Amino acid sequence: MSDKLTDDEFKTTVISCPLNAYDCRDIQICEGSLQQHFQSEQHQRSLAEHAKYIDNTADADTTDTNSNMEDEHQSSLGLYEKLSSLAQYIDQTRNTLTNINENLVRHLISSFPQHINATQEMLSIEASSIDAVHLNETVLQQQIFSLKEQVNNGYGILPQERGDIIAWKITNVHEKMYDAMSERQTSIYSPPFYTSPTGYKLCIRLYLNGDGTSRGSHASIFLVVLRGEFDGILKWPFQFSVAFCLCDQRTILESNGTREPKHIIGCFKPDTKSISFQKPTLSVSIASGIPKFCPLDELNRSANENLYIYQDTMIIKTFINFNGIDRKMLDFIFNLNLALPVHIRQKLIEDEVARHQH
User: Fold this and answer.
1) Which range (71-80, 151-160, 169-178, 188-197) has the least confidence?
2) Cβ atoms within 10 Å, residue 337
3) Peptide bond into 197 cis (omega under 30)
4) Is 137 exposed, middle or buried (0-12, 13-18, 19+ CB in 10 A)?
5) Residues 289, 227, 134, 155, CA torsion sign
6) Model pTM?
7) What are the CA-CA distances from residue 87 to residues 74, 75, 79 (Å)?
8) Contact between 135 and 284 (Cβ < 8 Å)
9) What is the pLDDT of residue 159?
10) Rounded to an integer, what distance in angstroms lies between the CA atom of residue 246 and that of residue 257?
11) What is the rounded CA–CA span in Å between residue 171 and residue 39?
12) Contact, 321 vs 349, CB < 8 A?
């Protein structure tokens, strides 16, 4: 059976108007007269209603679209405000951090010299402590060495009875000079001595190749204040002049007293502000004295011409000037015969002082 309608069927088939929702819904139309219906007044009114509906729908869609755009606009404005607030907060935070950084830098710059000074003071204290430890170590080593020498040479700590003139005999001088030049042992210490039975405890430190700026040109000699048994009853700082004498042994021995010996004499007065002459807090104080005591040219002469090293031996005398004797008297004092008792030597010195005063 064919799906197509015959002409007669087409003309008699009843259908509803497509605009039946707009007043045409109850009108039954034959398909054959559909064209005539479309031109009818009723259909034209329905078409106008439909057009009006479409227009209203379009307006509603436009309103919805505008509403959505307005919502999006408001949302964008809110987001912009949040971003602006965040940017402002970031700027404030950056400025705060910049200020903190600048203040920190200024503080560090202003406090840097103080930190430097504090560090330098700390390093200076540590260096002083290390020097003191090294000094004590050197003294102990020297004392061990001196004790060995004393056992070998048969003498010990210089007796207190020797009074105001102390004689230090140094043996194996050339070996000690070589040790000083090679810096194996730059200095040597005398045995300790007391200025009286209850006096100051002292010793002598000798640099046979010089110390500091005198290295290589002069022998240096220093006095060292040691911690003694009677420091608590003594007057401090130590303030008495000290004189050293490097004895001209060759002239004395070879001339048998017929020629005047050429002793090398040097003296110094302690700096009472120096820590070297305060009451000792350590077993050994810092040495102080005469850096340029004896030209090394004199000590380096040949054995037959050397006045001060005789048979590889050197003798150094020390005089502590408690009585303020004029330094012009030093030649006389150092030429006195140490074999004489102390009281006789003191009487001879008093007589010589009186003679010069008259």
Assistant:
1) 151-160
2) 8
3) no
4) exposed
5) positive
6) 0.58
7) 20, 18, 12
8) yes
9) 47
10) 17
11) 153
12) no
Distance CA 220, CA 276 (A): 16
DSSP assignment of 292-314: EEEEHHHHTS-TTT-SS-BTTEE
* Secondary structure (DSSP) of 85-154: HHHHHHHHHHHHHHHHHHHHHHHHHHHHHHHHHHHHHHHHHHHHHHHHHHHHHHHHHHHHHHHHHHHHHT
Kindly report the backbone phi and psi dihedral angles of residue 349, in degrees, each rounded to the nearest multiple of 5, phi listed first: -65, -45
Measured between alpha carbons, how far is 236 from 238 in angstroms, rounded to an integer?
5
CB 13 within 8 A of CB 5: yes
Q: How many residues does the chain have?
A: 358
Encoded tokens for 45: 């009114």
The three-point CA angle 110-113-115 to 5° equals 100
Query: Nearest 10 degrees: CA dihedral of 248, 253, 254, 256?
Result: 110
* CA separation for the pair 146, 265 (Å, rounded): 25
Helical (H) or strand (E) element with 246 = strand 241-246
Instruction: Enumerate domains of the chain plus CATH numbers.
Output: 10-52 (no CATH), 145-357 (2.60.210.10)
Give the DSSP letter of residue 234: S
339-340-343-344 Cα dihedral, nearest 10 degrees? -160
Beta-bridge partner residues of 338: none
In single-letter form, the type of residue at position 114 comes to Q
What amino acid occupies position 339?
A
Q: How far is CA 143 from CA 139, 161, 209, 224, in A?
A: 6, 21, 20, 14
Decide if 31 contacts 16 (C-beta within 8 A).
no
Q: Identify residue 193 by its one-letter amino acid code.
A: F
Angle ∠(149,152,157) on CA atoms, nearest 5: 55
- The per-residue pLDDT for range 112-136, each reduced to its tens digit, is 777 787 788 888 777 777 766 776 6
